[in-house]
């Protein structure tokens, strides 16, 4: 059937075009219809390659469906739908169109069967999403968006170079297992790593996401990093270096999250932490670990989206997002509070919530493969994520001291979007088999045995106990209005300062050199002119050079005249 | 004030109740450790109350280290908005530098006088 050949990004791109010419209810209806129709279409599509053509002697495959890509295809549709419902109240064409294009680009990237198509969508992801940051229309968001765009485009350029190397070495552009035994592999890993927020390349995320609009952050949190996780899972499963990178990603952001004041930035740090679990899973590379990584990506899109939505609701209704300004909102925003707590329980991997059924797979795989220390780090990160995302976020926003802010629950469309995400979190937690049946491998894994449940519950409850104890002792760091330096300090402060310093030294040296030269020149000039003065006053420097030119002209003219006379 | 509605946690007793429930849960979970037979895959898991102790200590260490990190990572809220604002350690320099000095420091662009 010809309909099969339509890749899922096409309806989204066409939809974005239609949005430009529609208004009001019609536009809302179209925005909701597109992900639903496209998802129904995707369900019917069988596995295989559905679109292929030859371009400059290379086989391009813009549409390939298999177990791995369809998993991300489904969750991106869910995320797009939830995000669209969440932003239905908006009257901002720029945001709505770019969100649609952004979701379409993410779908294009995960169904890309060759590296060139992947590169195109990789760059489109950057260019379409940056408008969700700029749409906040503040100087801060403009600057953050610029930095975001530069880093994202850099990742794309590195991917393109890697692709060219790869095509040269293997004479194919097919996007499959790449591995790390060539320069091309490393370049592509770096490109994926930047988008995946690997340590020291992670600051675009914590910098830009909290500066985006209320609704923009919800879209942003769903797509870019998960596309990178998908690409890693396809190209580098079992690359051991990813285990260590991933473990670092799970651990270091939680320290920053504990002292961060902007609650959406706390969530951005915890997003890196969650992606770390996925990267570890991909690095381990066994069937169980890959399943864990993919299903955790699936769940993370939903529960992280839910958390960003609940914090977005707080920002929307109170105009504040700093932990130091908030508190006591459970009184006036009870529904948001409950939905936020469901998201918090999911990300903390409480049994019966979605995080539990996927994160435990990665942890089990780490133990089975003998990564003892990595497992300990993951365990620490699990406790830590509960600490900063599970407790800190709801506690400082909705409880803690009464901030005196009077806000209501957000508009119904926002509540509905959050409710859908929350029910998915609980549904997947209670009935994980539905999720497991979609996974790339069949491992017969069951998260709900007494050992796992007890261990995880003990870990979480005693983390909560630690929070309570620290709070009662007054040792918990208070929320302070502040900026915490992170790696972005290098390119936002150190490098500009160093450059400025270097240039000031260069300017000063240049000035000194120039002055010295000029002085020398003046001395020589006055020396010669003094000499000439003594010889003859006609050659004196007091005569302008114009008169000299005139006399030369007179002499030449005389010669000319004489030649005629002869 | 009659209009002032009383909320759940305005009553300190409710907070206490919640905390007592938490303490009770923690005790029960440790006791369950002896009742339920675990399928352990690692030696550390057999240690007495490994998960509770690890979770508790892990979080305390996390918070203490994070608080300590504040001593050298924390800057004012608009740190990046003011490019002229120097780091906290260089504050004493700032007091001596007048506007003229700043210009001199930059060396001006002095291509030709």
Summarize the model shown:
The complex is a heterodimer of chains A (566) and B (113). By secondary structure, chain A is mainly α.
Give the largest chain-chain interface (CB within 8 Å): A-B, 63 and 57 residues
- Radius of gyration of chain B, CA atoms, in whole angstroms: 29 Å
- Strand runs of chain B, count: 1
Low-confidence stretches of chain B: 88-107
Q: How are the strands ordered across the major sheet of chain A?
A: 1-2
For the residues shown, what is the average pLDDT of chain A? 89
Oligomerization: heterodimer
Question: What is the averaged pLDDT score of chain B?
Answer: 72
Q: What string gives the helices and strands of chain A in order? A: HHEEHHHHHHHHHHHHHHHHEHH
Question: Can you characterise this structure?
Answer:
The complex is a heterodimer of chains A (566) and B (113). With 566 residues, chain A is mainly α. Chain A is built from 20 helices and three strands. Chain A has helices at 9-20, 24-44, 67-86, 93-110, 115-134, 139-170, 183-195, 203-208, 214-235, 240-259, 263-284, 287-318, 334-347, 354-368, 372-398, 412-430, 433-436, 450-473, 488-535, 545-565, and strands at 48-55, 58-65, 483-484. Chain A has a two-stranded antiparallel ribbon. In chain A, α9 (214-235) runs parallel beside α11 (263-284) and α12 (287-318) runs antiparallel to α13. The longest helix of chain A is centred in the last third of the chain and has 48 residues, at 488-535. Chain B contains four helices and one strand, in the order ααβαα. Residues 88-107 of chain B have low confidence and may be disordered.
Describe the SSE topology.
The complex is a heterodimer of chains A (566) and B (113).
Chain A: H1 9-20, H2 24-44, E1 48-55, E2 58-65, H3 67-86, H4 93-110, H5 115-134, H6 139-170, H7 183-195, H8 203-208, H9 214-235, H10 240-259, H11 263-284, H12 287-318, H13 334-347, H14 354-368, H15 372-398, H16 412-430, H17 433-436, H18 450-473, E3 483-484, H19 488-535, H20 545-565
Antiparallel strand pairs in A: 1-2
Chain B: H1 12-35, H2 50-73, E1 74-75, H3 91-96, H4 99-106
């Amino acid at each position: 059937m010809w309909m099969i050949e339509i890749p899922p990004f096409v309806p989204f791109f066409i939809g974005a075009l239609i949005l430009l010419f529609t208004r009001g209810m019609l536009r809302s209806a179209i925005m909701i219809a597109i992900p639903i129709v496209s998802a129904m279409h995707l369900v019917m599509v069988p596995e295989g390659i559905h679109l292929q053509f030859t371009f400059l002697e290379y086989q391009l495959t813009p549409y390939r469906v298999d177990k791995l890509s369809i998993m991300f295809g489904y969750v991106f549709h869910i995320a797009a739908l939830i995000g669209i419902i969440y932003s239905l109240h908006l009257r901002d064409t720029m945001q709505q169109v770019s969100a649609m294009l952004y979701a379409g680009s993410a779908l294009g990237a995960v169904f890309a069967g060759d590296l060139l198509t992947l590169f195109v969508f990789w760059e489109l992801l950057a260019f379409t999403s940056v408008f969700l940051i700029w749409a906040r229309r503040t100087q801060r968001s403009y600057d953050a968006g610029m930095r975001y765009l530069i880093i994202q485009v850099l990742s794309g350029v590195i991917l393109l170079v890697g692709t060219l190397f790869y095509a040269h070495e293997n004479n194919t552009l097919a996007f499959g297992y790449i591995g790390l035994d060539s320069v091309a592999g490393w370049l592509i890993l770096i490109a994926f790593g930047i988008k995946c927020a690997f340590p020291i390349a992670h600051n675009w995320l914590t910098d830009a996401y909290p500066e985006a609009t209320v609704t923009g952050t919800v879209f942003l949190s769903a797509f870019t990093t998960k596309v990178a996780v998908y690409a890693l899972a396809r190209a580098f499963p079992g690359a051991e270096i990813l285990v260590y990178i991933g473990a670092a990603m799970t651990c270091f952001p939680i320290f920053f999250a504990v002292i961060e004041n902007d609650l959406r930035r706390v969530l951005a740090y915890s997003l890196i932490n969650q992606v770390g679990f996925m990267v570890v899973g991909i690095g381990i590379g066994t069937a169980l670990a890959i399943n864990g990584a993919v299903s955790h990506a699936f769940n993370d899109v939903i529960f992280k989206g839910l958390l960003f939505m609940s914090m977005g609701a707080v920002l929307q209704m109170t105009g504040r997002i700093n932990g130091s300004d908030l508190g006591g909102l459970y009184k006036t925003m009870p529904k948001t509070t409950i939905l936020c707590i469901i998201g918090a329980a999911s990300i903390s991997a409480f049994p019966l919530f979605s995080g539990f059924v996927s994160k435990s797979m990665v942890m089990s795989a780490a133990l089975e493969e003998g990564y003892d220390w990595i497992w300990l780090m993951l365990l620490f990160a699990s406790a830590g994520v509960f600490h900063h995302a599970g407790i800190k976020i709801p506690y400082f926003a909705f409880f803690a001291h009464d901030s005196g802010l009077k806000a209501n629950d957000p508009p119904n469309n926002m509540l509905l979007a959050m409710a859908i995400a929350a029910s998915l979190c609980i549904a997947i937690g209670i009935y994980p088999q539905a999720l497991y049946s979609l996974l790339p491998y069949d491992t017969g894994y069951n998260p709900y045995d007494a050992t796992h449940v007890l261990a995880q519950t003990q870990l979480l409850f005693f983390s909560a106990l630690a929070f309570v104890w620290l709070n009662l002792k007054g040792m918990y760091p208070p929320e302070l209005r502040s900026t915490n330096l992170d790696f972005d300090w290098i390119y936002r402060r150190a490098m500009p300062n160093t450059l400025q310093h270097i240039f000031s030294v260069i300017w000063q040296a240049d000035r000194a050199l120039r002055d010295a030269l000029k002085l020398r020149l003046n001395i020589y000039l006055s020396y010669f002119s003094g000499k000439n003065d003594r010889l003859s006053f006609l050659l004196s420097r007091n005569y302008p050079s114009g008169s000299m030119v005139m006399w030369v002209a007179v002499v030449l003219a005389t010669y000319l005249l004489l030649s005629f006379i002869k | 004030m009659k209009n002032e509605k009383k909320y759940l946690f305005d009553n300190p007793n409710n907070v206490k109740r919640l905390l007592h429930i938490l303490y009770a849960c923690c005790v029960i979970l440790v006791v369950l450790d002896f009742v339920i037979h675990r399928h352990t895959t690692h030696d550390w898991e057999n240690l007495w109350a490994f998960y509770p102790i690890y979770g508790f200590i892990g979080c305390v260490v996390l918070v203490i280290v994070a608080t300590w990190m504040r001593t050298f990572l924390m800057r004012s809220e608009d740190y990046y908005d003011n490019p002229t604002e120097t780091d906290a350690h260089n504050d004493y320099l700032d007091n001596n530098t007048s506007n003229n000095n700043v210009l001199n420091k930059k060396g001006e662009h002095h291509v030709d006088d």
